């Protein structure tokens, strides 16, 4: 595994967690949108019957999945941050943290660090080499 692949795992785990959290938000919205059945009407028409217990069970499953994903993400971030901290150059460390740990876009990294796109990518290349060298990758 290359240094970049190892670091990308953290970004991918973070993206997966965000997807699960969006699923949770949608499931909650579905639960809140359920309406009570009006049994005073002679005939019920349209739609499919939604049992709230199914929705709640799905929400609980998603919450458990999110908790597991959080645990994996936190462990991965701690491990990668420890490895990044071995790099002597503070700018190189900051580039890796901004992009891989904080999940910022390259535009945000450039803005946050007050560097041009080209300079950030040059520093990123140096940072990957330093990461690999310090961590025997």
Written overview of the protein:
- With 137 residues, this protein is mainly α.
- The chain has one domain.
- The longest helix has 33 residues.
Number of helices: 5
H and E order: HHHHH
- Give start-end ranges of low-pLDDT stretches: none
> How many β-strands, per DSSP?
0
Euclidean distance between termini CA atoms? 7 Å
- Overall domain count: 1
Summarize the structure.
The protein has 137 residues and is mainly α. Helix content is 74%, strand content 0%. The model has no long low-confidence stretch (mean pLDDT 91).
Topology:
Layout: H1 3-33, H2 52-84, H3 90-101, H4 106-113, H5 117-134
Helix pairs in contact: 1-2, 1-3, 2-3, 3-4, 3-5
List keywords for this structure.
137 residues, elongated, 0% strand, mainly alpha, 5 helices
């Amino acid at each position: 595994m290359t240094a970049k692949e190892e670091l990308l795992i953290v970004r991918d785990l973070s993206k997966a967690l965000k997807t699960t959290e969006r699923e949770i938000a949608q499931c909650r919205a579905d639960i809140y949108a359920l309406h009570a059945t009006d049994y005073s009407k002679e005939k019920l028409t349209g739609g499919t019957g939604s049992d709230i217990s199914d929705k709640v069970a799905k929400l609980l499953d998603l919450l458990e999945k999110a908790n597991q994903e959080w645990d994996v993400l936190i462990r991965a971030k701690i491990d990668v941050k420890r490895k990044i901290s071995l790099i002597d150059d503070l700018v190189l460390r900051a580039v890796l943290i901004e992009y891989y740990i904080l999940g910022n876009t390259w535009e945000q990294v450039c803005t946050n660090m007050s560097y041009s796109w080209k300079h950030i990518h040059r520093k990123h290349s140096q940072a990957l080499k330093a990461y690999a060298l310090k961590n025997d990758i």
